[in-house]
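Reopening this one. Same input as before:
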Amino acid sequence: MPTDHPPRAGASRRGSSGGLAVGGLVALALALGVVAWLAGWRLGADSAVYRAGALTFLHGDPVYTDLRLGTLPDWVSLPFTYPPAAVLLFLPLAALPPGLVWGVLLAGSVLALAVVVRTLLGTGPDRPAGALLLPGLTLAALLLEPVWKTLFLGQINLVLMALIVVDVLVLSVRGSRWGGVLVGVASAVKLTPLIFVPHLVFTGRWREAVRAVGTFAGLQALMFLLMPGDAARYWTQYALDPDRVGAVHWIFNQSLSGLVNRASQVAPWSPLAALAAGIVLAVPAVWLVVRLHRRGDAAGALLVTACYALLLSPVSWSHHWVWCVPLAVLLLVRGRHALAAAVTVLFLSAIIMWVPNGGDAEFRWGPVAFALGNSYVLGATAALLALAAREWRRGRQLV
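Same output, byte for byte:
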């Protein structure tokens, strides 16, 4: 938006200082990655899988198999669970030494985190102050369980979140011809971001939704040409198999499916029950997205969709909950300090790591352990319903 007065020199300097501080954090992360590489530290199991998938493709071997990929380091035994197009996007990692992949992704993730924080700070009324807060909030966000676990595992969650935030809150808002493309790219790496396609539809951005679908479909179609057998195996066999990524009842699966499977002791009807709960929650979630967007609250609408996606997904590992960062920042810039603190404390405490888990431990929980062990799911569900109730009362008062 245009302003009546040009930004003051002091504000410009503070913004530059914030950018330099973030650059220092990124450089420090890369330096740590180099140290880890040279010291032979075993960090970033998931980043090793990304590189192994790309290398396996380059070798002409099957990427989707029940056997361990031969291109993995000897200390990693995880399958490649990502869509075929992810292999293409991970190809640059194949050029790096195996121990350095984690460091490069670490630096990229810290940068992505700063981009998300900066974008959400830009939704506040005091942008110079927001620029000054950028390095401090970015550094503080590293302490939240979903964030540090993402970094430790070498996961790509922060990068994908940044792609979606920039697409929906920057490119699409400005009417850019690139709007929707980054959502399509993120969806090509992991399927969960596909939920942001209906988000674009419900918020009236049809062109962006078409670009997102076109980008996703185009990348997947390309992989049918480059690796037809693997692509066919993924879409007909592995895409709908949540057990391939781990036990769905494990405490770290903080989704409706995880909660239901823990409560039912993995009863056969659990997937349908979780889906039914997700369908019921879709009503207030979609209503909130539309209502918030119409009121000009694009950031709030985006976070409702992100929250709902985490609840609906068959598997939402705790490190997928990096969306707690833009939520806390948004609450902070809007003066909801108590709520921002509550979100921060929940994810800073890493409470789910202190509850007995593993094997069948989740089936022996009492009421307190059940509440704590499902805290991300229960907290997000309660927040979504409370926000919907507040908006409903607000609407009735205006009638």
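So the earlier flakiness isn't reproducible anymore. For the record, The radius of gyration is 21 Å.
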